[in-house]
Amino acid sequence: MQRIIQSIHQGAKAGVDACRLCHGRGHGLPGLEFVSVDWFSPVLLISLYKQPAAEWLEQLRSEIGVFNKQPNIKNIILQHRYLSGAPSENLKGDIQGDYYAEEKGLKFHLNFKANQNIGFFLDMANCRQVLREHVEGKSVLNLFAYTCAFSVVATEAGATKVVNVDMAKGALNTGRRNHQLNNIDTRPVSFLGHDIFKSWGKIRKYGPYDRVIIDPPSFQAGSFNARKDYQKIVRKLPGLLSARAQVIACLNSPDLDFAFLRALFSEAGGFVEKQVISTPPSFPEADADKGLKTLIFEASR
Ligand SMILES: C[S@@+](CC[C@H](N)C(=O)[O-])C[C@H]1O[C@@H](n2cnc3c(N)ncnc32)[C@H](O)[C@@H]1O
Question: pLDDT tens across 15-30, in order?
Answer without folding.
Answer: 999 999 999 988 888 8
